[in-house]
Design brief:
Elements lengths: L24 H15 L4 E6 L2 E6 L22 H8 L1
Antiparallel strand pairs: 1-2
Subcellular location: Cytoplasm
GO molecular function: ligase activity; ubiquitin protein ligase activity; zinc ion binding
Pathway: Protein modification; protein ubiquitination
């Protein structure tokens, strides 16, 4: 089990996760960095919620909506690609 697993060896629920990037040079660069982070186990974490463990987003911010702005994890957010690339 990985560091941060609240109950190592216990089953946990998965989920469906979607994130969006623009199809341009900066978006493609970000996608490559996010892929590396995923391969290193940094994209998701397991959290205990109401007595059951489940997979959730980790600390790397993802845009989960095309709209709604920064407040709703969406676009427009002029700083997002620069901020996430700096973090990655």
């Amino acid at each position: 089990s990985k560091v941060g697993d609240p109950r190592p060896g216990q089953p946990y629920k998965g989920g469906n996760f979607s994130a969006f990037l623009p199809d341009n040079k900066d978006g493609q660069k970000t996608a490559m960095l996010l892929k590396k982070a995923f391969e290193r186990g940094l994209t998701f974490q397991i959290k205990s919620c109401n007595g059951e463990e489940r997979v959730t987003w980790g600390l790397i911010p993802h845009k989960t909506s095309w709209d709604g702005g920064k407040a709703r994890n969406g676009y427009p957010d002029a700083q997002y690609l620069r901020e996430v690339c700096t973090m990655l």
